[in-house]
Amino acid sequence: MDRRGWRIVPELGILGSLAFWGAAGAQPEPYARGSLTLSGVQDSNLFSATGDSRQGDSISRLTPEIEGGFRSARLSVAGRYALDAERFVDHPELDTNRARQIATFDFQARPAHPLSLSLHGDYVSTLTPGELNLTTGLLAARLRATRLSVGPALDWRLGPATNAIASFTQTKDDIVSGITVQTRTTALGLERRLSPRSTGSLGYTLGRYDFGGESVTTAHILSLGWERRVGSLGGFTLRGGPRYSAGRVDPEVSLVMRRDAKRLHVSLTCGRSLGTVIGRAGTVVTDSVQPAISWQPLRSLQVSAAPGVFRTRDASGGPEARVNLIDLGAIWRIGDWLSIAGTYRRSLQQGGLGGAGSGGAIDEIARDTLMLSLVASQGKTRAPVGAGPSQEVAP
User: Fold this and answer.
1) Which of 32, 51, 64, 189 gives 20 to 30 Å between its CA and that of 104?
2) Total count of domains within the chain
3) CA dihedral 130, 134, 135, 137 (to 10 degrees)
4) Are 78 and 67 in contact (CB under 8 A)?
């Protein structure tokens, strides 16, 4: 990442020092957890190719993972690292001990009563770049791709019903033989509780997308938001407003609806947003609809389904790509440290946008992935955010 991009590093050091100083008197509770996953994977389209050029294979995957950290009433630090090693039956030349690496870091502190500070970092290295197209669902050819993201945030309580929020996120996407994309997003916002069940918000976001050389796109987004609880187990969040970029004004909107019960969780996420595609120059606009359901018929069994529909096009117009996908999953806990997990994903892409790693073919691309895993884990897990000291990609 260029020198300008890392100017924020000294500020992050100051933020961390202040947070640790403010929480110095806290009594942290450490935790650690390790796991080892052995998986069998059946992939129908290793290279995300079209038509008769598709090549499938059976893959054996070993995934060691470790996570740990500590938390107290005023300070929380968490980290996680996972590594995939893969062996192929029909394509031994693809065997690798680092098919995928994932590392995350989370830091939260409350050095003073009205102030909350946080820092989140992500690193992903993968040979399946489509995994990084989270907002578009677009498939991609098999290439080494990496993503490095870091983002501090500040939450200041201005009164009993009002909060001010500021955040900055910097992300660098890189792919072999493709475009390096750097995204910087600065967001400022106000939240106010309108009633015991409703919260209103006002926000401004400045996004800068750098595709190398003189290719830079800037976006300004002004948004209004409304969050409301419906009953004791449900609610929705609606945000929307104008987006100004490249001399055009377009809508930016998102809607999240959720309903929770003791054993059933249902949600619906849909919206229109500006973003990027791994390995491709230029911003894209994506319309998406993503329902999801999770059901726990037994204490030891959980099943889930998450279909999705994405329509993506260049922000300045041109051809569009449509992706339909469905994710099915099940987890059966055999004991305290052993479980069996199964997942199935069906992805169908029609059309493309062009660009390295973007799945740019105009023909139809179909991919089916079936995975069965045996997971052994041991250790203490993290308490949920907001819990007291005594409380806790899959690719």
Assistant:
1) 189
2) 1
3) 40
4) yes
- Asked, for residue 390, whether it belongs to a domain, the answer is no
Do residues 325 and 348 touch, judged by C-beta distance below 8 A?
yes
**C-alpha 212: how far from its chain's center?**
24
Element (H, E) at 273: strand 264-275
How confident is the model over 331-340, as pLDDT tens digits? 999 999 999 9
Amino acid making up residue 8: I
Confidence check: pLDDT of 20 > 70: no
3-state class of 287 per DSSP?
strand
49 in Cβ contact with 365 (< 8 Å): yes
**384 Cβ contact partners less than 8 Å away, ≥ 6 residues apart:** 391, 392
Name the pairing type of β-strands 338-350 and 96-112. unpaired
Distance of alpha carbon 243 from alpha carbon 220, whole angstroms: 6
Is residue 389 assigned to a domain? no
pLDDT, position 121 = 98
CATH number assigned to the domain comprising residue 333: 2.40.160
**Spatial separation of the C-alpha atoms in residues 173 and 333, rounded to whole Å:** 36
Residues paired with 219 in a beta bridge: 207, 245
Angle at 278 between CA 274 and CA 279, to 5 degrees: 120
- Domain residues for the domain of 248 are 4-22+30-379
Mean pLDDT of all residues in 129-141: 94
Q: Widest CA span of the chain, in angstroms?
A: 65
- CA 150 to CA 9: how far, in whole Å? 10
In a domain, 392, yes or no: no
Q: CA dist 229 to 22, 164, 201, 263, 290, Å?
A: 34, 21, 15, 19, 20
Strands 248-260 and 264-275 come out as: antiparallel
Is 321 buried (19+), middle (13-18) or exposed (0-12) by CB count in 10 A?
buried
pLDDT-derived band of residue 27, with 50, 70 and 90 as boundaries?
low
pTM: 0.87
Say which residues have a Cβ less than 8 Å from residue 25's Cβ, sequence separation at least 6: none
The tokens describing 131, both together, are 């995994």
| Residue at 395 is within a domain | no
